[in-house]
Amino acid sequence: MKDASLSTMVMKRKINLVWAIAILHIGDSHSVGPFGRELNRELRALPDTQVSFYASCGAVATSFFNGWTTPCGYFQQDAQGAVIDVKSHSTARIEPLLAQLHPSLTLVELSTNYFLGWGKERAIQDMEHMATVISQSGSDCLWISGPDTRRFHSQQGKMLDWVKTAVGSKCQVIDGSATTSYPDQGDDGIHYGRTKTVQAWVDQVITEVKKKL
Q: What is the pTM of this model?
């Protein structure tokens, strides 16, 4: 009887592993910080999912192709739960991740760093390339545009248009500025601490993820 129960338990674990929905997330410093930490936690709490989470401060799409080394923060938690949480680290490459993980859904939180010296055409090409690679891998895609910032507030609409132009035909775009509002004073004008605004942004993303499951 004991052996039979053990066999049943092993079978259930195998079934759960086979049917787990693989989710891959990649992002920039917002994903390294409080937004990403909470999003990672809530994604892993969803039933029948297997989450791999990679975030690199300062990253744009190209960073996840060339393995750029971030100097300002890196957070990674793989599908088995192993964590890398350091200041400087090479950025995970998306093509091997897609080949190894075969994600059903890929989340991309990248756009804010295109404000820093990237022109429209170059930024659109960079994002479009990543969206194409994700689409060709067979994964569904949610692209999360950046939140509201004090430093770039007047340009938020322009960046959202760039994102939609670049990836809109291949990924569903989530407008991060729709649920966020940066304070008039304090912090660095770009990044968020752990606030109700961050939770609203996480809730916005989780709502759309659940529709995909």
A: 0.90
